[in-house]
Protein 1
Amino acid sequence: MYLFIPETVYFEPEALDYPLGAKLYEYFFKKDIPIYKTTSHNRVTGIKGDSEVEKYLHSKRTLVVGVKKTMKLEPCRPSADYSFSLTTGCPAHCEYCYLQTTMGKRPYIRIYVNLDQILGTIQKYIQKNFPQKTTFEAASSSDPIAVEHFTGSIAKTIEFFANQQQGRLRIVTKFDNIDSLTKINHQGHTRFRFSINSNYVIKNFEHSTPSIEQRIQAAKKIAQAEYPLGFIIAPIMIYDGWEQEYTNMFNQLKHNIDFYSKDNLTFELIQHRYTQSAKRIILERFPKTKLEMDDQSRSKKWGKYGKYKYVYPADKSDDIKQYISILIKERFPNSIIEYFT
Ligand code: SF4
C-alpha cells in the first residue's frame, strides 16, 4: 500500500486552533517534515523547481493545512445532490484529471481542519430537504482517501452520516488506503465507489496511483465490510485492444467481488473527454503524453462550464456504452448502471 507523505507542509495560523490542525502539526513535526506558516494558502511561496513542470511536481508534494471559509455547497450532478470538500487537490498525477485545469499552476493539496463546521453545514442542507433524502459527494475536488491516513476525516464523516436518517454520503477513490474504514458502523449510509480502469490506462495515464489489483483488493475489503459499493469506469478510452483489456478488468472484478450481495452494485461510466484548456495544460506538463487528443476525430459537446468538451463521436461513444454495459450485465446482472456520459 502506497501512503502519501508530503515533502513540505504549510499551516494557516488559525488551523492550529482546531484539534485536527494541532494533530497534523504534531504528526508532521515528529516525521521531521519541513513546516512553514503562511498567512493564507494564496500566499504560499517558495515551492521548489526551476521549470514549470518541476514546480508542478513539487506542488503535488506540498500540503497546506487551513480552514474552509466558504460554506455554500455546490450541486454535483449526476453523481449526487451536492458536493463538499474536506480536502482539495491530490498527490497522484493522472494526466487527464480535471484538477489539471481547476487547480491552477500550483496544485498543492489543501486539508480543511474545521470538520465540525463542514459537517454542520451538511446537516443544514439535509434538514432543508427533509423528508427527501439528500446525497453528498466527498470527492469532487480531491481524492480524500489519499490523505486519510493522517487526517482521519473520512472516517469521522462516515460516522456522521451513519446518524443521518435522510443524508447519504458518496465517496470515490483510486487509493487502497481504506483499512481504517472497514470497522466503522456506517449503517449503509455511505456508498464507496472505486475508480478502476484497464491496465493500459492506469499504466500510461494514472501515475502514482495503486494498481488495478490493489484497487480491487481494497474494494473487496469494503464489500466485506458491507458498505454499499460501486465502481466508476473513467475515463473509458478507445485504443488498440481496448475491448479485451476492459473484458479482463471486469473478469478480475467478478472473480473478487462475486460474493457481494449486500446491496446492488452501481456502475458509473464516463468516456474520455477534454477541453482545449485541459489539452494545453496536459501537453505542457506531459509533453510525451500518449493521450489521444486529436480534435478532428472528436465531437464537440457544450459543457456546463461554458466550454466545449471533445468527446468521442456518436458511433464510437455508442460502441463504448454498449460494449461496457454488456460486460457489466453479463457479470453482474443485478447491478445498476447509473449513467454513461
Ligand atoms: Fe485526479 Fe483522481 Fe487521479 Fe487524483 S486520483 S489525480 S483526483 S483523477
Protein 2
Amino acid sequence: MKSWLEIDKTSDFSIYNIPFGVASIQDEKLIVSRIGNFVIVLDILQDAGVFNDLDLPYGIFIQDSLNGFIGLGKKVTGKIRKTIQTFFSDADFAGQFALDRDSYLLDANMVRMALPVSVGDYTDFYSSKEHAFNVGCMFRGPENALMPNWTHLPVGYHGRASSIVVSGTDFIRPAGQIPNKETGIPSFGKTKELDIEVEMAFIVGKETQLGDTVDVNSAEDYIFGMVLFNDWSARDIQRWEYVPLGPFLGKNFASTISPWVITMEALEPFRTNGPVQDTPVLPYLQQKGNHSFDIPITASLITKEGIETVICETNFKFLYWTMVQQLAHHTVNGCNIRIGDLMASGTISGKEKSSFGSMLEISWKGTQPIQLNDGSTRSFLLDGDTIKLKARSEADGIVVGFGEATGTVLE
Ligand code: CA
C-alpha cells in the first residue's frame, strides 16, 4: 500500500497504521484518525459521503470518547479503518468526493489530543517474568524472587481510572507517608523515589455480562487496540503501604497513556510467540497459536534543560503472560468487563539491564545510578524531568508506531 499523500518515512503513522483518537478542536471533541503528520477529521469525511456504504449512525465521529465508536463492533470499526486506508491509498476513490484537503487534514502539531477513551475500570497486571524476578530479588533474594503463584496465573490488581491522563499532562510530585529508614516511623512528605513503569495497555472492545467468562481462544475478539502506558510509581510510599492489600497511593496519582489507540488489525503483521511457559497452566489459560506482538519500546528521560537520554529499550514480546490469558483469567470468576476498560501489562523488562522497564531496576534500588547524556545521574526522577515512551514496529516495509506518552514531574 502507498498513499497519494506524502508521508515522512520516520512517521509512526503510515498508511498501514490508521489509529483512532479524540481531538479537542475549538471547544469540541471529535473522533479523529491520523496519517503522517496529519490529523484526519472523520466527521468531514462522513459528511462528504466517504463512509456511505457502511450506513453509520449520523454524527458518530462527534463524541468526546471512543467508547460509543468502539461499541459499533470490530466488524464496523474495521471497515471504517479500511475505508480510510482506501481513501488515502486510492486517489480515484478520494477524488470522487471533491473535498478540499485543508478541510479534513489538520497539522498534528496544532491539534490538542484528549484522553481517547472513558476508562471505567483499570486493571494492572504484573506479567513480565524478568521484572517480577528483579523486584523479588531486591526484596526477598533470588531464591524466593518469584512467588509460588506467579507461573500459574497472571498476577494483577485493580487500579484507579480517574487519574489516567493523556500524554502531555504534567503532574505534581506526590506526597504521602514515608517511613524513616532507621526508626520505621512514618512522616508526611514528598516522595523521594519517584519512578516510571514502562508498560503497554489494551482497551476492551466488547462487553460481557456478570457471570460470563471469556474463553482464552476467543479473547482477542474483546480487545479493540493498544496504547503506551506509564504507571508512575512512588517507591517509598508504595513500600510502606502495600502490605497486605497491594499498591494504593504510591501509584494512583497519575498514569499516562498515549493518545492514539492502535488497532489489533494494524498490529497483525507483528504477531509473534511470547516466551515458552515451562510451567503447565490450567486449561482455562491454555492458548492456541501466537498471541504476542513484536513491539519495540523505548523510554527516554529529558532533563529540564532539554537533554534526552534513552534509559530503556524493551519489547512487548518479552511478556510471559499474553493479553488473552490476562483477559481469560480476569473473567474466569464471572467478573464482567465493559467497553473502554483498560488493562495494563505491568512493567516490561527484558533480560538485559538496558531493557529494564523501571528506574528501580535500572539503578538497582539506587545502588547503580543511571548515567545521563548531560553528565548527571539519576536513581529516581527529579522535578522538571520528563519521561517519553515511544513504540514502533517494523517488518517487511510495514511501519506501525504508537507516537508518544510523555509527562513532566512538577515540583
Ligand atoms: Ca505497574
